[in-house]
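Please go through this chain and its backbone structure tokens and walk me through the local backbone shapes. Keep your notes short.
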Amino acid sequence: MAYRRTAAVQARLDASRREILKAAVSLLTEHGYAGCSVAAVAARASVATGTVYRHFPDKATLLTEVFRTAATREISAVAAAVHRPASIPDKITAVIDTFAGRAFKSPRLAYALLAEPVEPAVDAERLVFRRAYRDLVAATVADGVTHGVLPPQNSVVTAAALVGAIAETLVAPLAAGSPEPDTIPALIAFTRRAIGATDAADA
């Protein structure tokens, strides 16, 4: 007869997994992927190394889940900002304000999520989340086009270009840990021009 975990055992395992991920995200925020060795994560979570491997068979699997956990939190914040009542250009501005503002508050984490060299599995997750950001922007741009607030354009291409521009603009300041004060305002101005926002459209 196959062994079945009791609800109490499963609850303990789930709690252990959550603590391991919490510890790993904390290390990622402080030191990037270089600080997320299995041993370091185990020490931060106050568990044995073997316990980490019980939940994550290898480091790549652990880091992929760590990326997914941290990135999901970031995109949820951006999505919440986009869905607040506002004009279409202001919704696009909210993407940058939220994304870049949060990035500069935790530059080490943001650099790790955007550009730090890491295992191919994590790079694959980066593509998934870049598409998620693109889709948020594309839906907003398409809404603006539909309502005549923005000029006709391929909303997916526009969104992909903007997400790429935002990431490229932020990588160097995040790596240096010292953003220029006009980085976000300049990026917002560029983005509003790129989507075709005008004073009339902002009204």
Remarks:
- The chain is about 75% helix and 0% strand.
